[in-house]
């Protein structure tokens, strides 16, 4: 176990003339963990204000603004064996420390939607550092991985002092950065039970690389040109990924179906307004993006 | 051998590209204190108390000399703004979120930031004004000429639109930074980090501190972009030097980005009601504009020049027989405003060009044709407009406006803009083309002073009053010097913005450095050349008329072996030299001043091709052409660079950037997640056509400024292109044209 103290400023050494710190966050202690059990032990010891540090792409920015003030960080990036995409029994497992960029560059049959969706996440340097587990833990309602775990009905695998448990993604996200994970638990992997060859995610933001104003994801099971089952999940229309209650079973796979589904989805949501878009605009985006996601999923 | 017109590699680059530049945060002094500003968290309220946490060195308004306020640098229209000036620390009332209320000093920036967080500011809330129209009126004035009422009375057509420009501003890569230190040996206050108008800031500070201006030495620095906001005199520009002076310890302050977005001058926010009178043939008879200008909480150094420039430049390059503009300058509980690159012109051009687009449709005349018809022609110039701005008359000096418009349209066609538009439309895209014409102004006075000195090695030093903001002014001034002396620019070193080396500098702003600074350097260099010839005639014992200068050698015409170098002449100018007359000053050096009577007016055309996603409202700018008349390009690469950067900022202002506030006056864009600057992905492919057809008659170099013309018509052209893409009959109404607004216009179809 390695431990560095980032001392609070009042405790700093005398050698002030030549050296000063240029960090921005409120004082915290830094710890490093080398395996999952070590992480859990350290979290238990450090108490509920300690946080896991993964890629740091969400957490460190919030700390720099002092919006997040963890008392301690436990860096998990040196834990081995959690950086993987593995096919099993028809499904796919993704390790918590798998970088977005790794998902982007790994094509897995039946899970193409994941690598395609990865390009929507931030910019290249962010994708090289940010982790799959970090994104799920952060639980942003527009995050691509959060939407896709709900769309594909994945399971979030958690480990904590009380052992290992699996939570369905559909029950994991509780809204505004809150999830089913306890502060002393760690996400170790995410399990996708079955492939989704007809799935797509599309989204809109004004600039490339920004968080989506609205994101729409869709999954279809198709027989010839007929829809057998459908599932639509939206981001940016509420505090957590929103499953749309539109069932397209029995309908033809065509533009008219997509357009009508978009309208139906828009009618169901009541999105909030903020600086990136009013609720009314988000409804319009929902109609447009749902139709586009369905068309892409069917293609 | 002339260096003017050469694409010389930038002299700044070896330093900057190797990380050897000297920026604000690069300076440190042993034992320095770090300052952190405590800012008001509320938009309006009475300051009840400020706590001083245990062990913290906190300074509030009670501690600073009474009545210290940020002065107006540019006074115009004889309007007194004394009641609206910003105190360096709020004393009893706070007027915007981000207003400095106290500062904390510590030995370490981290400690200062921690302690500043502990300072409790108790504020009794007062009603907040966010809407411009509800603000306090700080000034109102009118500008114009001709009989506007008569023009509108006899008009066959009157076209009227309302148009708003959103609040946005410059966001240079490097936030502000200052270091001040008293040199114990000389007793002088050393300041690092004032990078726009150092001499002005030195004088303001001397007055505030009650000390002689020569006890203050502002040093030359690099700056990571200025664009109008950096380097003006802000509260921190008093606080840091004052603390260093009174505590006799070095004091350093570095602004962070979150502070920057609420602390530096905002700009642009205006609402216009503009109308034009036309006869039945589409000839402009008159123009009227009523402007509401939001200046935020205070008048700062720019006073009311942005609203003044808005009106004075509004008629643009057109033949407008009668014009009347009125502006009301309103104070609201938002960050105070100042200039941002192309101040007043970005706003006015957006509004006027949108009006012309709407008018063209209403009159049934092609929009390029309508413009061509109403542009002043080459033989109508110079053209005097009976109104003044920045204290000088508006005299449009030289140019061929319709000629440049034609050139731009031919170039856009040659580059495939029109065929691309057609093919996009054929594929069902909502694509559109915008065309906008603009007039710029540059080369504002009153003066600039330059010193040119040749040393005994033949190296040449130039001390100019401009500042190096990344624009390449060192390269330009070296080229001007090399041209006048007939030497290699490599031997010229330019130092800008050091108040000891150049105590009479005017600074870098208003596209003035090349025009005014360049002309001063030219005059000083010519004076050095004349003196060199005079000395050489004594040294070579020939008449001055028989001497010529070639490649840095002063020689006898027709007698190849008989010559002296500038280095030889510099040696002959040393004290004790037999060639020096008894009262003649030593040294091969000259200081010269260039005074400006009137500004020079560059102009240009922007053409943009956009593709609108009608489902989301997203606007993609596919192609962008800037055609710009610069009089004479000292270094074409640098002119092009200025234009490209301007377009990038213009795209931001046209589509993305806005400082929004909620009803409580809380700023909504305080990070780069919310204040959307264009990235490389949003900046279009840009084509540039630099014209040198109309040299400026008012300066020896014939140059017109190039700093702003890439930005001036960006709002106008993109608004026009969107209007064209959507087939609107009315105006787009507002900038920035965010995707949400565009999507709304598609719905309304107005
Ligand atoms: C400019 C920018 C743009 C971005 N755009 C997008 C975007 O478009 N879409 C998107 O989805 N994301 C975006 N991100 C965020 C990025 O994807 C982050 O990488 C991700 O949200 C968090 O992953 P991380 O590994 O960086 O986690 P960290 O920042 O290290 O941690 C985030 C949170 O998760 C917790 N945590 C991390 N790992 C675990 C774990 N294994 N178990 C339990 N808790 C854990 C941390 O304690 C913390 O609370 C953007 C980030 C930036 C800076």
Would you kindly provide a brief summary of this structure?
The complex is a heterodimer of chains A (299) and B (750). Chain A has 299 residues and is an alpha+beta fold.
Describe it for me?
- The complex is a heterodimer of chains A (299) and B (750).
- With 299 residues, chain A is of the alpha+beta class.
- Chain A has 3 domains: 25-75, Uridine Diphospho-n-acetylenolpyruvylglucosamine Reductase, domain 2; 85-192, Uridine Diphospho-n-acetylenolpyruvylglucosamine Reductase, domain 3 (2-Layer Sandwich); 199-298, Enolase-like, domain 1, CATH 3.30.390.
- In chain A, 30% of the residues lie in helices and 27% in strands.
- Chain A contains 10 helices and 15 strands.
- In chain A, the strands form 4 sheets. Chain A has a 5-stranded antiparallel beta sheet with strand order 5-6-11-7-8.
- In chain A, a hairpin with a 2-residue loop joins strand 5 and strand 6.
- The longest helix of chain A has 20 residues, at 279-298.
- Mean pLDDT of chain A is 93; it is low at 1-18.
- With 750 residues, chain B is of the alpha+beta class.
- Chain B has 3 domains: 24-127 and 175-223 and 230-263, Aldehyde Oxidoreductase, domain 3, CATH 3.90.1170; 270-443 and 598-749, Aldehyde oxidase/xanthine dehydrogenase, molybdopterin binding domain (Aldehyde Oxidoreductase, domain 4, 2-Layer Sandwich); 445-595, Aldehyde Oxidoreductase, domain 4.
- Chain B is 27% helix and 25% strand.
- The A-B interface holds A 8-10, 12, 16-18, 20-24, 26-27, 65-66, 204, 206-211, 275-278, 281, 284-285, 288-289, 292 and B 30-31, 34, 55, 106-111, 113-115, 117, 256, 258, 615-618, 655-656, 660, 668-669, 671, 673-674, 676, 678-679, 681-682, 738-740, 743-744, 747.
- The site of flavin-adenine dinucleotide (FAD) has 30 residues of chain A, from strand 3, helix 2, helix 6 and strand 11.
- The site of flavin-adenine dinucleotide has 30 residues of chain A, from strand 3, helix 2, helix 6 and strand 11.
- Chain B: Residues 18-127 form the Aldehyde oxidase/xanthine dehydrogenase a/b hammerhead domain.
